[in-house]
Design brief:
Strand content: 25-35%
Distance between the termini: 88 Å
Number of strands: 51
Helix content: 10-25%
CATH class of the largest domain: Mainly Beta
Radius of gyration: 27 Å
CATH topology of the largest domain: Pectate Lyase C-like
Structural class: alpha/beta
Mean pLDDT: 85
Number of domains: 2
Length: about 650
């Protein structure tokens, strides 16, 4: 009898249940409340608008897929809370954690606990104090293999450790977060986390430590970690105040003292589009402790041919090929090209390359030639002037018709700029020849650029991105190409994406926020840069609630799709596949942004980023549209960033 009771007791102790959401429980919290230690809660793909608390339960909470299983806190406190002495058996994995807005710990708040936080996307969360993505105090969590991005706080935009916290942080991608101190990670009073094999890139701080900030007797132990291309007013990658951190076997931009540390470009495969795997010849491979690799990821691509990027012709009487063209067409070697014309083909600084022009103290024209100023560049051909002879005539019509019959495409022939060459372009060209250049029927800026407008509710919006290079009074807006100069500006400036003038024809130009703040005005007469409140008014007219509009990160339902347009420019995703796409005629487009540093330009084809005129703390409010989400994204961005401007009627 005693033996049978013992067996039953052991069986009861080892029994664990699996609870299903939403099949068995309508909400995640209801499943947590019904669970017992050792249970697993499995959550199907979907968006769950909740703020959950583990309440001391040592359970595994697992999403079906971290891209599609979303816990959205609705900007009503921390999304996930561990504050009841949870242990490592309390696990959170395979979720997107977003929509947090709390005093401490926007996305995840840990206090007096030691949970396991693994394989999640933690994005679009805000804290009034510590830890936009994750905040830990008096805790020892394990934080592994997460993507922690686009979160903001005062201290520790991505993660904050405070008050005797000794976490293990491994294999995380921490990028694009922002704070006043510690854009990526903030280590505060008496914290001592172990930080290994992470990639910390592209974070920003308005004061200290864009990558990592160590404050007051904190002692993080950082190894095998890439800390690269972060920005801050002081110490952009690592900043230390009255602390004793250890940085060893790390790749630190700008260098840092420590055993095995290097300062070498990690050679990310595609950092601009969020791919932080590295090329097979990356210097971080095998450079870590005991011959291991640095960073969160391994090899994801092979290096390009040494000259494969040099495919731009120089068109002003110089040799008409770069290194790869020399091989392909001239049968020459790169060494011969270097010897004959003094080109550094190893860096692809060939004729027609922007870097080559800059080395000569020149600018690059739209035809890829170099000149001292824009006035010395060859004249650009007008739309429809296919043979570029300066006249619109029947020869251009014949050339256009032949292109249509041969199923060819050229931007110069696409007069209505819809991405398709067809009979409509022929009709417009014929009318232009018969009637002359049409009068601008929208709004015209100081440079003579004509913009279509669209009435949405009570607001009259420009339906195109701003292109002007002058303030309203005719003064030049500085055109800044150099990255270091751009990062240190405190006056208005503009650039083109990747400093390529051709991009401005479709996407408009990118401006820093100081341009907006200039009293001379950047928008056409009768128009202005909209405030954050005026953009909210637009979003609420399209169906967003006031509560949603006041939030951060992705808000609403399909307002992003309603405002976006030009499906030919966007990467394939939920934004353009939503039935509401281009419903309003606002036509937001994915022109990307300039964030400075080594990354510099990011996200053309993926994100459209638009300034508001409203200042908030260290930055200003912006709107973002992302190819993978139909909602409209709201966040604070650094005033030095270069983004598009869309003007609103007075």
């Amino acid at each position: 009898m005693i033996r049978n009771l013992t067996i039953l007791l052991l069986l009861s102790l080892s029994y664990s249940a699996t609870l299903l959401v939403p099949d068995e429980y309508p909400t995640i919290q209801s499943a947590i409340d019904a669970s017992y230690d050792g249970d697993s809660v499995l959550v199907s793909a979907g968006t769950y608008y909740e703020n959950i608390n583990f309440n001391g339960k040592n359970i595994a909470l697992i999403g079906e897929d971290r891209e599609t299983t979303i816990i959205d806190g609705g900007y009503n406190g921390s999304v996930v809370t561990f504050d009841s002495i949870e242990g490592t058996a309390s696990a959170l994995s395979n979720f997107t954690i977003t929509g947090g807005n709390a005093y401490d710990g926007g996305g995840i708040y840990c206090s007096s606990s030691a949970p396991t936080i693994k394989d999640n996307i933690i994005t679009g969360n805000v804290s009034d104090t510590y830890g936009g993505g994750i905040s830990c105090n008096y805790s020892s969590p394990i934080i592994m293999n997460n993507t922690i991005t686009s979160n903001s706080a005062i201290y520790g935009g991505g993660i904050s450790f405070d008050r005797y916290t000794s976490s293990v942080i491994k294999g995380n991608n921490i990028h694009g977060n922002s704070a006043e101190e510690g854009g990526g990670i903030g280590c505060f009073t008496f914290s001592s986390p172990t930080i290994t094999n992470n990639t910390i890139i592209g974070n920003s701080a308005s004061t200290n430590g864009g990558g990592i900030y160590c404050y007051y007797v904190s002692a993080p132990n950082v190894t095998n970690t890439i800390i690269w291309d972060n920005t801050a007013s002081t110490d952009p990658n690592i900043s230390v105040y009255f602390s004793d951190p250890y940085f060893n076997y790390c790749d630190v931009m700008g260098s840092w003292e420590g055993e095995g540390n290097i300062d070498a470009d990690p050679l990310f495969c595609d950092a601009e589009n969020g791919d932080f795997t590295v090329q097979s010849d990356s210097p971080v491979l095998g450079a870590g402790q005991d011959g291991t690799d640095m960073g969160a990821y391994g090899v994801g691509c092979e290096p390009d041919d040494v000259c494969s990027a040099c495919n731009i012709y120089y068109t002003d009487g110089y040799p008409g090929f770069c290194c790869d063209m020399a091989w392909d067409e001239g049968g020459l070697t790169c060494l011969y090209v270097e010897a004959e014309w003094g080109l550094d083909c190893g860096g692809c600084n060939c004729f027609g390359d922007l870097a080559f022009c800059e080395e000569q103290g020149l600018m690059m024209c739209s035809d890829y030639s170099c000149a001292e100023s824009s006035s010395q560049c060859p004249p650009e051909c007008d739309l429809g002037d296919i043979n570029c002879d300066g006249d619109l005539n029947v020869l251009d019509v014949v050339l256009m018709v032949n292109m249509i019959l041969e199923d060819e495409y050229d931007e110069i022939a696409d007069i209505n700029e819809d991405g398709v060459l067809n009979v409509l372009d022929v009709v417009i060209l014929v009318n232009l020849i018969l009637d002359g250049e049409p009068v601008c029927e929208g709004v015209e800026d100081i440079d003579g650029n004509c913009y279509e407008t669209i009435q949405i509710g009570d607001q009259l919006w420009m339906a195109e991105n701003l292109k002007t290079t002058h303030y309203q009074n005719g003064d030049d807006i500085p055109h800044v190409i150099d990255t270091n100069d751009w990062d240190n500006l405190s006056i208005g400036a503009y650039c083109e994406y990747e400093n390529n003038p051709i991009n401005s024809e479709i996407y408009g130009r990118l401006y820093n926020w100081y341009t907006i703040d200039d009293s001379r005005g950047v928008c056409p007469e009768g128009f202005h840069v909209p405030s954050d409140g005026e953009i909210k008014q637009l979003e609420m007219f399209l169906g967003m609630s006031q509560q949603e509009a006041n939030g951060v990160s992705f808000r609403g339902t399909d307002q992003g799709s309603q405002l976006a347009g030009r499906s030919d420019l966007w990467n394939d995703g939920d934004l353009e596949n939503n039935p509401a796409f281009d419903l309003t005629g606002f036509v937001a487009i994915p022109g990307g942004a300039r964030i400075g540093g080594n990354t510099n330009f990011i996200d053309m084809g993926r994100w459209g980023d638009y300034w508001s005129s409203t200042v908030q703390d260290w930055g200003a409010w912006v709107r973002n549209f992302a190819y993978y989400n139909s909602a409209s994204h709201r966040q604070i961005c650094d005033k030095h960033y270069g983004m598009a401007i869309r003007c609103l009627g007075d």
